[in-house]
Amino acid sequence: MEDLNIRIEGRAGRITLTREKALNALNHDMALAVLAALSNWCDDPSVDLVIMDAAGDRAFCAGGDIAAVYHAGRAGDHQVGRDFFRDEYRMNVAIADFPKPVVAFMQGFVMGGGVGLGGHASHRIVGDTTRIAMPESGIGLIPDVGGTWLLGRAPGRIGEYLALTGARMGPGDAIHAGFADTYLPEAEWPALIAALEDTGDIHRIKGAKPPAAPLADRDLSAFGGRHVTAILDAVTAAGDDDSMTAMRRNSPLSMAAGLAMVRAARGDRRIQESLGREYRFTARATESTDFLEGVRAQIIDKDRSPKWAADASPVAVQALLAPLGSNDMTWETAE
């Protein structure tokens, strides 16, 4: 398809994102195509491993292409969003549970849907340009695509910090936080990809010493507060102006729900549990949250001035995370 180059090269199944001008943003058709490719290669003896990469220097994948979800939601059609999120999450699980190695080469921006693509691979390679973030609270959403699963496993209070601020991580921080595994200068990526294609041998991955991880030494104890308000007060008192500014800019409902979900994910045994909880929010997002207003302000009109209006109370968060009944996500491997 036009937005992806899916093929077999040597011993490797290859998935290359080719929407370079759109920073390789992931749309619904792309998610379905990745899902189909993984299904086809699962039992294919000619494929020893899967390699995911992307065209261009600026981004592996800067997020999900949610314009169609926005316009449908504005028109009162909430099923478009539900279908997109459901299929995207099915793709996330297929990557996380793939029985063969999946190697993701993540340069430039890796945000939102890009984390869902690369962040659940078995071998996640980053370079000097890599900038990873889960900035969904800035558009009225929550860290989805299995983001709460990753954030819930980050050391200390890094998960809460990243969820509430949308802060970007360089390669050292990404490895420290558990969003990546290996640092390798990007000039060396083509040779490694060629070796993996030629041999199918995952042991060809030899990383270099990663850059420093500033988050490892940062005091994030303020993010241990029980509620968003308490965290914001603590951040303000600590003089953490960057975090304070980000939190005052983001959707109060998204931060409250994201905080609850990251903490709930710490008790999950499988990524499916985290994704199922995320879907309860995103299935309701175009109808009952700040999501449409956030997308309007940040992506459609680009006035960067969202008018947050959704109820951010604990009762509202609980309602958004309540079971969807027969519409809850189910998994073929759930038994």
Short note summarizing the structure:
The protein is an alpha/beta fold and 335 residues long. It has 15 helices and nine strands.
Question: What would you note in describing this structure?
Answer:
This protein has a 6-stranded mixed β-sheet with strand order 1-2-3-5-7-9, with helices on both faces. It has a 3-stranded parallel β-sheet with strand order 4-6-8. Helix content is about 45%, strand content about 10%. It has helices at about 30-40, 65-75, 80-95, 115-120, 145-150, 160-165, 170-175, 190-200, 230-235, 240-250, 250-265, 270-280, 285-290, 290-300, 315-320, and strands at about 5-10, 10-15, 50-55, 60, 100-105, 110, 125, 130-135, 180-185. The protein is an alpha/beta fold. It is built from 15 helices and 9 strands. The two termini are about 35 Å apart. A hairpin with a 2-residue loop joins strand 1 (about 5-10) and strand 2 (about 10-15).
Distance between the termini: 34 Å
SS summary, helix count? 15
What would the average pLDDT be, to the nearest integer?
Answer: 96
| Regions with little confidence, pLDDT below 50 for 5+ residues | none
- Multimeric organization: single chain
Order of helices and strands: EEHEEHHEEHEEHHHEHHHHHHHH
Q: What is the approximate shape?
A: globular
User: Strand pairing plus helix content: what structural class?
Assistant: alpha/beta
Round the Cα radius of gyration to an integer and report it: 19 Å
